[in-house]
Amino acid sequence: MASIDESPAAKRWLPLEANPDVMNQFLWGLGLPPDEAECCDVYGLDEELLQMVPKPSEAERIQQEDIKTVSTGAFDHRLNDPSSKVYFMKQTVGNACGTIGLLHAVGNITSEIKLIWIEPDNVITCSADGSFLDRFFKSTASMDPLERARFLENDKEMEDAHSVAATGGDTEVELEMEKVVAESMDFTGTKAGLGLLRCEVVGVHCFFMFEGEASDNVDTHFICFACVDGKLFELDGRKSGPIAHGASSPGSLLQDAAKVIQGMIQKNPESLSFNVIAISKRA
């Protein structure tokens, strides 16, 4: 999805599919260990359905369809200077909101998870300096949101990894990623959201499945919700900064984010479609 900082001639990527399996392969291939965290579906925003998600949540992703009609309304006044602990970046690459949402989720829990080093011969996203994610967050730690966006825009490794995930992984690189993941997993027969050990949700993401050419300006968008320093933040690369939505905790992140999402739905009942995915950290 285009951002407010994107020029008409800006680089565009293929949209990332709203699929936990695709996102897991994407993150695991970039250096997030399968036994550290994984994405799983959130089947609804009612309390009984939220209880099906491993808790507590670390981040949540939301994708909105028909985003041209979306407005967070009363929430916009909360675009203040949030905690310096919040990892936030702008979006300057078209259709990159899925990848940016995942980076927002992982970037705000780097102190709570390990980012593994993978043998460089196994996957293109690794080197002797560590996994891609480890290098990315260390390189951008002191940058401002727009500088991080430009860094991502010029990062060929991330562009290649995003392309693999966006095209369904039908490449040699994806096969190598799957091989690395399989060798490092300490459990079998586990699909995203099923058969999990005790986990805690570290992120919430909402989005809608779509397909398109890299040149398409799709009317869908990914948003990440994360709990940082005891507060719920909405992280949207189109905005000028994080949006604070009040107090939260890892144990209530999923429910707190669900309330914000429900508010968006109520304001645009005929304009929005949602798909929600949580990122769960193994406890």
Summarize the structure.
With 283 residues, the chain is α+β, with helices and mostly antiparallel strands. It is 29% helix and 19% strand.
Characterise this structure.
With 283 residues, this protein is α+β, with helices and mostly antiparallel strands. The chain has a single domain (20-282), classed as Peptidase C12, ubiquitin carboxyl-terminal hydrolase (Ubiquitin C-terminal Hydrolase UCH-l3, 3-Layer(aba) Sandwich), CATH 3.40.532. It has 8 helices and 9 strands. Strands 1, 2, 5, 6, 7, 8 and 9 form a 7-stranded mixed beta sheet that branches. A two-stranded antiparallel ribbon has the order 3-4. α1 (20-29) packs across α7 (172-184). The model is unreliable at 65-82, 119-128, 169-199 and 206-216 (pLDDT under 50).
Query: Count the strands?
Result: 9
Topology as a string of helices (H) and strands (E): HEHEHEEHHHHEEEEHE
Shape: globular
What distance lies between the first and last C-alpha atoms, to the nearest angstrom? Answer: 34 Å
Mean pLDDT: 70
Largest sheet: 7 strands, mixed
Q: How many whole angstroms does the radius of gyration measure?
A: 17 Å
What is the CATH homology-level superfamily?
Peptidase C12, ubiquitin carboxyl-terminal hydrolase
Strand content: 15-25%
- Indicate the structural class: alpha+beta
Give the fraction of residues assigned to helices. 25-40%
CATH arch. level architecture? 3-Layer(aba) Sandwich
Tally of domains? 1
Named CATH topology: Ubiquitin C-terminal Hydrolase UCH-l3
- What is the highest CATH level, the class? Alpha Beta
Poorly predicted parts: 65-82, 119-128, 169-199, 206-216
